[in-house]
Amino acid sequence: MLAKRTLENTLVALAIVALGLNAMFKFAAWSAIARTQDSKKDNDRTLNIEPRKEVALQFDSWTRYQLDSAQQWAPLFPEGGVIHLGPTRAPYAVSMMHQLRCLDVIRDQLTRPRSERDAEPTRHCLNYVRQMATCRGDLQFDPIQYPHKVNALHPHAVRRCKDWRAVYDAAWKNQQQHRDWLKEHWSNASNGGGESSGLVWSLP
């Protein structure tokens, strides 16, 4: 009789454990699905600055942005072109600024002796710019000239573009909000007002 009761208790305990494990697995699966959906949403995110007006850009062989002018290239991607989104302030790179930063990486590598070059970031940037050019699929015509011709067809062609200044304004606003957020959380952590979650805050 005692052995039978012990067996029943054991089976009940095993059933409870099985139910608990089943609940844990379901919760883990649900969390994984939710993270995947959030990731897809993140990948579809864009800066909320629509509608963006169109502006004219005159093409020219500018003397600015030379191969060795790092200080002139840096303002094209302020703070690395990184913005922070969501309650966790997850970092993202604005694609336009990411592309400009990649051009700067390639520029920088070209100015270095071959023995000092780092192939990995250059390879990444070459492929990133290639993929973005393909992704955008710009259908506007560019005037070209054959090598044996002397004068360009249109030396100062004008192109219709989306206003890039709106991108910089939106990125600057987000970066300013992130700086304020960092200062607030740094102050709370320093004053014992909240846990720092093990993070070391670095104010730009």
- Across the major sheet, the strand order is 1-4
Number of strands: 4
Q: So what's the overall shape?
A: elongated
Give the SSE order as H and E letters: HEHEEHHEH
Q: What do these coordinates show?
A:
- The chain is mainly alpha-helical and 204 residues long.
- The protein has one domain.
- The protein is built from five helices and four strands; from the N terminus they run H-E-H-E-E-H-H-E-H.
- The protein has helices at 2-43, 70-73, 95-110, 119-136, 164-190, and strands at 54-58, 82-85, 90-93, 158-162.
- The strands form two sheets. The chain has a two-stranded antiparallel sheet with strand order 1-4.
- Helix 3 (95-110) crosses helix 4.
- The model is unreliable at 194-204 (pLDDT under 50).
List keywords for this structure.
52% helix; elongated; 204 residues; disordered C terminus; mainly alpha
